[in-house]
């Protein structure tokens, strides 16, 4: 009976495909349950203007990138060049200074460039917790309705922008 | 300086230089939560923090991990227990933000059924295969490994030729 030999062979091929796919899967990229949901509410001060309040409502009305960064975050330095390019192209990026001090953040932005339309300060990481952030950098893509459509864990680069985010931004605008 | 010591120091230096590139940066631990827990709440706190995964160092619970995020999550669990929230509510608070991955024992649902049922399915398949194999063997007639008659004949002829070869007395 041919099936006796074909079945185990098919099972083996299936396993190999499964494991090969697994090799390309980064376990550190935990899928966010917030995709497709409205941006979590917050009300936080702005860098340099602590008296002003910035809320989730202020993110509505146009597609926006919300980028969690910090002066203590090494990978953020890698990402900053690319964010500067995006900002120069007219992409609106709102920064969230995650678990950081205002002085450190100002100094860091002066050194590495400031691509942000606004910088929200989240010194305790409270907004970070509500947004499911577990490191920096993390970037959320919001459509005009203020719904999270994509989350990038780790530095954003041209490949991610072109393949993942740009199509969503076009649809959302 | 011994060779071993020097090698150790060089390794340490390499690790220190690589660490910022490999590890996504984390901040210092926040201050501990001052709210006091009752004995019962403390017990629930201890069991909860050992069921929740730290997302930075993924093979540790937030109870074991030294990562600042784990400290934040512990404080969050602590504060919510002190505020009278139930275990289910606290777990939901975390899964709403971080997904089921934060639970060491994920719930049984459409996305996770294979995770839970998989081992039992494989066991079932193995049992079925083993049973079918055993039954197929029983129905087969046991193949004759040794043909007794042929063997006896062979032995008989061996003996005969042996006795013929044996030196005998001169013919009478």
Automatic annotation (TrEMBL), chain A:
Pfam families attached to this UniProt entry: Redoxin (PF08534)
Protein's UniProt keywords contain Hydrolase: no
Residue ranges of domain Thioredoxin in the record: 33-170
Keywords recorded for this protein, A-Z: Cytochrome c-type biogenesis, Disulfide bond, Redox-active center
Subcellular location(s) of the protein: Cell inner membrane
Disulfide bond listed as a keyword: yes
Principal location class: membrane
One Gene Ontology term, aspect cellular component: plasma membrane
Gene Ontology terms describing biological process: cytochrome complex assembly
Molecular-function annotations in GO: disulfide oxidoreductase activity
Protein's recorded name: DsbE family thiol:disulfide interchange protein
